[in-house]
């Protein structure tokens, strides 16, 4: 009688091991999309822990500006307070690459916080060979401002910055 009670009360190590393998497999399968989402949000310049509260939409694009395709993306995050950002991405213009457009890598060139929701979007101009001018009438603050894309110089004309970065005040642009 004691032998029967011991067999019923204690699960076999074979089943315990199998359940453990299934649990580890399910956790690993759930970790892959989570890691992909975190990596995706970090590559867009967002905090990976709060990116689920953000929405991004493409606001415009311009092709072949000094050999670059430029895209404007507006991101809004509503976690505890509303935060907005406008980002300009650049990707190298490739002839006949319309089918491979999804796989081109983009580089963040310019990111700023708009002063208000009705502010104008940035405009782009090719001022010469290997020169791009990005113009914005007004911004609240500037987060990212790159001055070169490979061999192409990027210049900025920002009409008004409400909250300038103190570290940049002494620099000539």
Radius of gyration: 25 Å
Count of extended strands: 9
Structural class: alpha+beta
- What is the CA–CA distance across the termini? 89 Å
Description:
This protein has helices at residues 2-9, 13-43; strands at residues 54-65, 68-78, 82-92, 107-113, 123-128, 131-139, 141-145, 148-149, 152-161. Helix content is 23%, strand content 42%. Residues 1-5 have low confidence and may be disordered. It is elongated. The chain starts with a helix and ends in a 12-residue tail after the last strand. The strands form two sheets. It has a five-stranded antiparallel β-sheet with strand order 1-2-3-4-7, with no helix packed on it. It has a four-stranded mixed β-sheet with strand order 5-6-9-8, with no helix packed on it. It is built from two helices and nine strands; from the N terminus they run H-H-E-E-E-E-E-E-E-E-E. It folds into two domains: 2-43; 54-168, no CATH class. Strand 2 and strand 3 form a beta hairpin. With 173 residues, the chain is α+β, with helices and mostly antiparallel strands.
């Amino acid at each position: 009688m004691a032998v029967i009670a011991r067999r019923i009360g204690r699960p076999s190590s074979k089943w315990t091991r199998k359940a453990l393998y299934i649990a580890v497999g399910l956790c690993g399968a759930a970790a892959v999309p989570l890691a992909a989402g975190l990596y995706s949000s970090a590559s867009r310049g967002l905090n990976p822990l709060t990116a689920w509260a953000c929405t991004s939409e493409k606001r415009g694009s311009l092709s072949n500006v000094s050999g670059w395709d430029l895209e404007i993306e507006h991101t809004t995050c509503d976690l505890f307070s509303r935060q907005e950002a406008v980002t300009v991405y650049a990707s190298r213009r490739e002839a006949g690459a319309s089918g491979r457009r999804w796989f081109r890598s983009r580089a963040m060139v310019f990111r700023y916080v708009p002063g208000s929701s009705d502010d104008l979007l940035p405009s782009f101009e090719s001022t010469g060979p290997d020169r791009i001018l990005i113009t914005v009438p007004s911004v609240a603050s500037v987060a990212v401002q790159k001055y070169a894309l490979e061999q192409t110089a990027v210049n900025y004309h920002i009409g008004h910055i409400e909250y300038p970065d103190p570290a940049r005040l002494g620099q000539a642009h």
